[in-house]
User: What shape does this take?
Amino acid sequence: MYLLTKLGFFSIVRKSFDPVKGEEVKGEDFQVRAVELQDMYNLLNAYKAHPDFDSHKHHVPHVMETHFADYRYRMQVKPTEMSIMFDVLMRSIDYMNFKRTITKNYPDQSKKAKIYEDFRQAILNIQKD
Assistant: This one.
């Protein structure tokens, strides 16, 4: 799943790293991936500020850097923690125009506005076919 948000751009899949096999395998955990470290920090800071986050029950996922992968930054997230992250993302939708909001109010995200417009245009082209 791709998520274009005011916190950042994320790809979310369901897989884990199996240290015994030394490879990624399908698992119950989610893997949240990003190309920019700041995006991960934005999500984690919002996650820790969420009213349902309890530092005694939930842990803060560790961001791993993988230079060889298509998404440089990754974190493993348990399903219970992912539900809080999804709620964080849902609560972040407080705008009527996404691109205008990130361009005007989120300097660390504004550079993505052109990419998001290109993505939007590509999707609209599918609709026209």
